[in-house]
Amino acid sequence: MMKNNGIFTVSLDFELYWGIRDKKTIQEYGENVLGVWSVVPKLLEFYKKYEIHCTWASVGAMMTESFQDLQKYTPEIRPSYIEKNLSPYYDFIQSSEKLDGRLLYGKSLIKMIQDVPYQEIGSHTFSHYYCLESGQNKNQFEADTQAAIAVSSANGIDVKSFIFPRHQINDNYLEVLKRNGISIYRGTEKIWYHSPARGSDEGLIKRAFRYLDYFVKVGSHHTQKISDLSDNGFIVIRASRWLRPYSEKIKYLDKLKLRRIKQQMTYAAKNNEIFHLWFHPHDIGIHQNKNLAFLEEIFQHYRYLNEKYNFQSKNMLEIAQEYGKK
C-alpha cells in the first residue's frame, strides 16, 4: 500500500583517494581525503542525533586495510580505457605502497559505519569504474562488480544498492548489476543538464546551468514521485542535489544555496515526493566546521519537516523495500 509521506534520503560516494586520483594530485587534494577520517565520525554523530538514514556507496578497493589486502580482490580482467590514467591498474596501484595508507584503505571506517543504526553500505564499484569511457567493456565491468561484491562480502555486507562513479550510467550494463544481485541505483536528475555523459562530453553550457541550479530554481525542484521509482526491474532513486562544499570565494552565496535546498526539501515533504541529497565525504574534508554547520541546518530543517509533514528519512535499500513496487 502506498504510504502518505515524503522521503528524505542521503547517499554518499565513499571513495577516499580512489575516486579523485585521476583528477587531483595528492598535493592538491590530500588534505581533503585525510579529512575524511575525522568527517566520518562527526557525520555519524549527526546521523544518530537526527536519525538520518544513509547509503554509503563504497569503492571496493577502499574497503581493504592494506596494499597486501587489496591484492586479494583485484580482478584479473581490468578496464582497458583509451585514456590510461583513468585506470588505477595502469601504474597507480603498483606505485601506491609508499603512500599514506589513510588515503586509500578505509576498512576501519566501514566497521565504524556498520555500528550505527540505519546505515546501508552499497557499492561504488571496486576501482571507481567509468562505465561510459571509451575502451572499456561490459565483461570488464562485470569483473569489477564481482570484485566489489567479494570485498563487501568479506566485510559482512550484502550489496543491494549501487552508485555509478561520476553518474556515468550505462543502460547496457544494468543487466550485469541484475545478474549479480543489485537492483537499486541512484539516477541523475530528470533534466538535460544532469544527463549521464563521459567527462569529455560535459560541455560548458551544461556545467553553467548546473552551477546556477545550486543557488536558484532552474526549471524544477528535482524531487521524484514515489510512483516513478520502478524502472525496468530496478528501483531508481534519482539525485536531487549535490551538497556543494564551502568555498571562501563564493561564501556570499551560501544563504542562497541553503535556501534552495530547503525549498526542495519542503516541496518534497508537502507533495509526498523524494528529496535525495548526495556528496562525497572528501568534499567536506576541509573547512569542516563550516561544512558541518551547513549540513546541520539541513538536518534541522528535516526534523521540522518530519514533525510538520511526516517527512521520513530512509536509505536507498529501505526505499526499495518499503516503497518500491513488488
UniProtKB/TrEMBL annotation:
<dbReference type="Pfam" id="PF01522">
    <property type="entry name" value="Polysacc_deac_1"/>
</dbReference>
<dbReference type="InterPro" id="IPR011330">
    <property type="entry name" value="Glyco_hydro/deAcase_b/a-brl"/>
</dbReference>
<dbReference type="GO" id="GO:0005975">
    <property type="term" value="P:carbohydrate metabolic process"/>
</dbReference>
<feature type="domain" description="NodB homology">
    <location>
        <begin position="38"/>
        <end position="183"/>
    </location>
</feature>
<dbReference type="InterPro" id="IPR002509">
    <property type="entry name" value="NODB_dom"/>
</dbReference>
<dbReference type="GO" id="GO:0016810">
    <property type="term" value="F:hydrolase activity, acting on carbon-nitrogen (but not peptide) bonds"/>
</dbReference>
<protein>
    <recommendedName>
        <fullName>NodB homology domain-containing protein</fullName>
    </recommendedName>
</protein>
